[in-house]
Amino acid sequence: MTEPTASETATAPRRTALSGEHAALGATFTDFGGWDMPLRYGSELSEHRAVREAAGLFDLSHMGEVWVEGPEAGTALNTALVGEFSGLAAGRAKYSLICEEDGGIVDDLIVYRETETRFLVVPNAGNAGTVAALLAERVAGLDAEVRDVSAETSLVAVQGPAAERILLDVVVPRQRETVSGLRSYAWATVTLADPAGDAIEVRLARTGYTGEDGFELFVPNEHAVPLWGLLRAAGAPHGMIPAGLAARDSLRLEAGMPLYGNELSREVTPFEAGLGRVVSFGKEECFAGREALEARRDAGPDSVLVGLSGSGRRAARAGYAVLAEGRTVGRVTSGLPSPTLGHPIAFAYVEPALAEPGTRVEVDLRGKAEPFEVVATPFTRRPAPASA
Predict the structure, then answer these.
(1) Binding-site residue positions
(2) What are the pLDDT digits (tens) for 342-380?
(3) I need a surface site. Which of 4, 64, 99, 350 has the fewest CB within 10 A?
(4) Considering the entire predicted model, what is its pTM?
(5) Aminomethyltransferase C-terminal domain: which residues (predicted)?
């Protein structure tokens, strides 16, 4: 066996601490954001349905983890990102964006506040280094430090209606109320234990990207394999199975959640993407992109992101043209047959005049115009909890 050349090593996808576990399960791998990640373990449809009906176990260790710490950490994030964080309570989380000076979206991310002076920023896989560098640049001169710990941190998610029951089976008894009482977009440090008594301390967040209830668990890399095994064993009686990126993509699209590189990019601002609500113009700090975003807010976007629902069997795919009265009026960014709904769904950017739900358009599916309708998103919603 020959050693890889320097150029091969430089371009080879990175592997998570759980790569061996995925290979042992027969996963099919794909390069995603520079990482070798499990696309599916068997049937992506079965994995999708498991998350909707029971639970799925995901390796999300390709995501970034960047700490912003110090007396002025809140002010630093207010300066670097479009959201307002100085008022975010400890133990809570907020979705936000980091933008260029021209208003283009560099990445979407989640910010978790651990203490008054300590925040965790979680960017997307391919953008983690860029985000860490921009944060360091933008907080210069403030009493705050930026530390990128992505390479030493693993992230595992349990998503689905059985997620809470699974976590309650493995958290130490004194912290069961912490798990059951954890609100959406909140997090806490808890201890999980297996029947042998081996304990794993995790940062447990009630966040996710599937539209279902669920948790994301942050641990140092050395605890990733034991954590994965503990959760697999606890979840099996509840119907939980490992799930790959293919199921994660169909789940997030049904839930109406944008994907960076598809719906979000440096070519669009929060106002085209329907995310103007996360931009805080009321804060004191002059954040990066503020002037450009104020101008775009006042002028209105040239195109807007909408959901499309098809009545046929053929799915619209990223890059396909959206048509109205024979002319191109937009472009599809994501699309697939919805496993839950049984018909095609898609995201697309279209002219603002065509964004009203109920508007009829067509999508050019390789030379054939197929009918679609603009619909409100999310495409699916999880059932409300049964009343007592």
Answers:
(1) 216
(2) 999 999 999 999 999 999 999 999 999 999 999 999 999
(3) 4
(4) 0.94
(5) 305-379
| Number of Cβ within a 10 Å radius of residue 73 | 25
A 10 A CB-CB count for 157 gives: 26
CATH of 14-63+153-253, one of 3.30.1360.120, 3.40.640.10, 3.40.1170.20, 3.90.1200.10: 3.30.1360.120
**Residue positions in the annotated binding site for substrate?**
216
**Residue 102: both structure tokens together:** 């021209």
Distance set, CA 361 to CA 103, 311, 380 (Å): 29, 12, 21
Which tokens sit at 249?
């993509």
CATH superfamily of 302-378: Aminomethyltransferase beta-barrel domains (2.40.30.110)
Give me the half-sphere count of Cα atoms (radius 13 Å) on the Cβ side of residue 41: 19
Span 111-156, pLDDT tens digits:
999 999 999 999 999 999 999 999 999 999 999 999 999 999 999 9
